[in-house]
Amino acid sequence: MPIKYEVEITDITVCFYCKKDGLTENDQYCPDCGFPQRGSLQEQKSFLCDSDNREIEMGQQKLTLGFARYILFFIAVVNLVFGIIGVSYTTNEINYVPELITAVIFMFLGVWAVKKPFPAILTGLTIYVVMVIFKGILLPQTIFSGIIMKIIIIVFFCYGVADAKRYENNRRKTDGLKKNK
Length: 181
Ligand SMILES: [Zn+2]
Description:
This protein is mainly α. The chain has a domain at 57-176. It is 67% helix and 0% strand. The protein has four helices and no strands. Helix 1 (41-89) crosses helix 4 and helix 3 (117-138) packs antiparallel against helix 4 (147-178). The longest helix is centred in the middle third of the chain and has 49 residues, at 41-89. It is elongated. It binds zinc ion.
């Protein structure tokens, strides 16, 4: 615990952390943010420390989520470019419909991930894995092409899914804390 946390409660009816007022003797913990208003000094300091740690964690989780979102857009752009090149060099445009559909889906997922990172990245991971397997069955010779890239994408999506879940949990707690701040 490198930072010193000072707790000095001047008014016991006002939450030290979120400033909610009207706390009574029965409110051992603040009903809004859970601050141990009538707890021990140790409890209070560890509450403040936890909430700071949560902020730091969320900063790191945001970076992972940003990267996962970047991969969603990356897949969209690659498919879009392949689709457009394909369509302009072939007489059989229908062959490139899957690329264009994939581009649209991943573009949508990338935008959705800004608001709802967990379902968006999880959907992206699922679709991507299904696509790799499906293509591997149809064209077995493609399964090892760009295998490193495929693994990197899948690994980062997995990190993204895990961190999105943690981030949403953290945000739920923080939102509770900030309600009255
Ligand atoms: Zn409070």
